Amino acid sequence: MDRQRLIYLIKKRQQGKCSAAENAELHELMQTPRVEKEILLLWDQLHEEKTLKVSTDDSKKLYDRILVNPEIVAIIRNRSVGKAKKQRQRKYQKIVAAPAVLAIFLGIYFILFQPSLEQEERSPKTADTNTAVHPGSNKARIIFENGTYQELGNNSETVNINRDNFFTVNDKNGSISYLESSTINTRVAKTHTLITPRGGEYVIQLADGTKVWLNANSTLKYPVSFNGTTAREVELEGEAYFDVTKLAVNNKHVPFLVKSKGQVLEVMGTEFNINTFRNKVTTTLIEGSVKVAFESKSTDQFYILQPNDQSVYDNKLEKVSVAQIDPYYVTAWKSGDFAFDNAPLENVMEDIARWYDVHIEYKSEVSDVRFSGKVSKFENIETLLQTIEWTGSVKLKLNGRRITVMK
Fold first, then answer.
1. Which CATH number fits the domain that encloses residue 365?
2. Could you give the number of structural domains in the chain?
């Protein structure tokens, strides 16, 4: 076996840059007898380069699963016998003492190059386009004041839409922009609603320049125009990322309010994420400063959030908590990724279900299972599920548009 070629292909596969021909070549190389031993012999070179990264917790789980394979255990043990027994024994002890590192490199074989066994356990793909599972895309529906609506996201070119004396621009990249018009009657407040379905997301620029990224299965209700000195008020259900523009009329600041399930958030000019899923309102501040208050009579206090602060409001229990967090894991969806840091598996699967528009069925209790990692939102669904399987100590079976979760 050409060891250098194997290393080269492994690196390209890990980076997602393998061509179809290189994938076929790599698969053929991995069918070579005793390829596991060859990977172990590459240990020092791969370890020194440190080209792969896996969290310690995930690596430990993968390591435990590797050690139940008697062939792999035998290969490791065989390294501790022979002419250089003492030297190899020290090497073996070093490996066993660092399961996270061993898991990274043995995991190359199991995660990347033996998917067939996992795939055989799943039902074969169907040609029915109604059951084929694909990542979400830019799509939404805008509902006008009179109840009519316009589907968004299927236009190959930029188009203009004229409704209620204002102009919008439906962009082929998945965004819509409102432009202020001098002909708008500010005494008649018109509102529109933007809805993203499961498997859809969209970006909207409001008339004041505020930009909102709306995640899948979410709704934003907003005024057509922000002319005047009254507060700019929108309503959100679901999840959205806001980049709010400051607005002043006659040197007077015009507040921007976001109402969501009993919470009222007031901003001056800032960036933040709001998530109303799971019966809670989770607000994460990225830049600036916001004030969160609540409509509940028993929750009469308010909180001023600073960057990296996250407030969680349980509107059923009427309780609020505030903590400092890493906002990366909250906002990764906006950049096209799933990112989780020791998140409950149920939350992970719920996010996947919304984006891929699939249903989740649990055959086992998984409340003790947590997941850490980053995966592209546009990854093939089977590859995504396989990644979670190896790091989450669960089995995931895809059948049509249903994912069954079991231990």
1. 3.55.50.30
2. 4
